[in-house]
Amino acid sequence: MEWDWNFVWEIMPTLIQGVKITILATLLGSVLAAIVGLGIALARRSPNKALSRTVGWAAEFIRGTPLLVQLYFIFYVLPDIGILLPPLVAGVIGLGLHYGTYTAEVYRAGIDNVPRGQWEAAKACNLSATQTWTNIIIPQAIPPMIPALANYFIAMFKETPLLSAITVLELMNQAKSVANTYYRYIEPITLVGAFFLVISLFSVMLLRWLERRYGKIER
Amino acid sequence: MTQWSGYFGLILQGALVTIELTLMGSVLALFMAFLAGMGRLSRFFVLRALATAYIEFFRGTSIFVQLFWAYFVLPFIGISLTPLQAGVLALGLNVGAYAAEVVRGAIQSIGREQYEACTALNLGRWQGMRHIILPQALLVMLPTFGNNAIELLKATAVVSLISLTDLTFQAQVVRAQTGNTLVPFTTILIIYFVLALLISWGVRSLERRMARGLDGVRA
Q1: Alpha-carbon distance B102 to B140, whole Å?
Q2: Most buried by CB count within 10 Å: which residue of B41, B140, B201, B215?
Q3: 3-state DSSP assignment of residue B45
Q4: Which domain holds residue A99?
Q5: Domain B8-211, classified CATH 1.25.40.10, yes or no
């Protein structure tokens, strides 16, 4: 079978539709992962042993099991207990939770990297725990970890094709349906690969820039 | 009451396929990692360029797309692969690209003085690599290799989508036959997690074994 450019232009609008959903899922998933990760990181530092242990184990479990199975779990098991989610929402929750356990480690490292003196100074200034976190620790911890976070968001972007398994109409699913209709696989699947490669290469350039901008700790 | 024992046998069969895939994929990944990792450090421009192209390509596109490409597109250019072959190929090449960067980083992390000592002892490039550099670098690579193996284990879930009867596929079969979603999916999540724990435990004990007698020598 030959590569057919006419066919490529014919299916391009459908694939672009898919790219939009893929990017949307990645953005929403990233926001959720950033929030979940911070939550997990804070819970694991909590003085309450029961809370920090439970959250630690849950995160470990989520990190040790495949995203695809978790997506199935969210999409097929939760309706049994009455929670019916649209595919995209289920997908975003899956991505956010899974990558939240990874970003939690980034937050942990970022928070650990804030020098002890800052904690002591906050105490000396008579700041409350909340004030210490929001005004002293978090503002200093976040900038150095931006490149590492972005790294995980790019990884998440590359996992979004899994959402096609729970019927989200993202890039991969659009390509598969096009391929099944015309019974031509070469162009759609290769184009999906090309889309991913191009977008990842751009994201890597953005990542390099972020590293230059935020990577070093400011004095 | 459903006959769970029969279904459990089905899931165990799936677990065997998953383990088989993980092992074969890891072997291919390990091979590719050393090939490409050392290729990137080669004296010859062509080898460096080839290794870089391989690594960037496989890290830049999603494993899912690579798998589909191997399974659906390769037959059109005359290479027909069974699902198992396509799975091992895609998993091994993908994870191998990530692990290649680990190999490169570990080799580069070995101090200059070790290379100088090799020269002083009149060892050839290959001799120095084989007897001096690699034994030390291997220990640096090992923990990250463990993480890569777990990533590979989790990525095996994707092969269920090209009709390979692994754990995830069998769970879908059980779901279709019993109408119960909670039990099969919870079971396989636990099996995946136990397998991941086994890998990290195995790598850790291997690391302890290899580090024996090196106390104080490691930087």
Answers
A1: 9
A2: B140
A3: helix
A4: 5-214
A5: no
Cα torsion angle, A153, B96, A192, B164, sign: negative
Measured between beta carbons, the chain A residues lying within 8 angstroms of B64 are 159, 161-162, 172
Q: How many domains does chain A have?
A: 1
pLDDT digits over B164-194, tens only? 889 999 998 998 888 888 888 999 999 999 9
Closest Cα in chain B, distance from residue A130 (Å): 35
Mutate which: B54, B58, B73, vs A, most A CBs within 10 A: B73
Residue A219 domain-assigned (yes or no): no
Give residue-wise pLDDT tens across range A46-86. 889 999 999 999 999 999 999 999 999 999 888 888 888 89
CATH of the domain at A33: 1.10.3720.10
Whether the ipTM is more than 0.90: the answer is: no
Is A72 in contact with B185 (Cβ distance < 8 A)? yes
Yes or no, beta carbons of A204 and B66 under 8 Å apart: no
In Å, how far from its chain's centre is CA A215? 20
A159 domain-assigned: yes
CA atoms within 13 A on the CB side of A203: 25
> Residues with Cβ < 8 Å from A35, sequence gap 6 or more?
A96, A100
Cβ distance B192 to A65 less than 8 Å, yes or no, reads yes
Is the separation of the CB atoms in B141 and B107 below 8 Å?
no
Contact A68 B168 (CB under 8 A): yes
Measured at the CA of A57, the angle between CA A81 and CA B192, to 5 degrees, comes to 70
Angle at A207 between CA A203 and CA A210, to 5 degrees: 140
Q: Do B185 and A69 touch (CB under 8 A)?
A: yes
Q: How far is B87 from chain A (nearest CA, A)?
A: 15
The answer to whether A166 touches A157, Cβ cutoff 8 Å, is: no
Q: Which residues of A touch B197 (CB under 8 A)?
A: 64
User: Domain residue spans in chain B?
Assistant: 8-211
Q: In whole angstroms, give the CA distance from residue B141 to residue B93.
A: 18
d(CA B35, CA A29) in angstroms, rounded, equals: 35
Which residues of A sit within 8 Å Cβ distance of B? 1, 61, 64-70, 72-73, 76-77, 80, 158-162, 165, 172, 176, 179, 185-186, 189-190, 192-193, 196-197, 200-201, 204
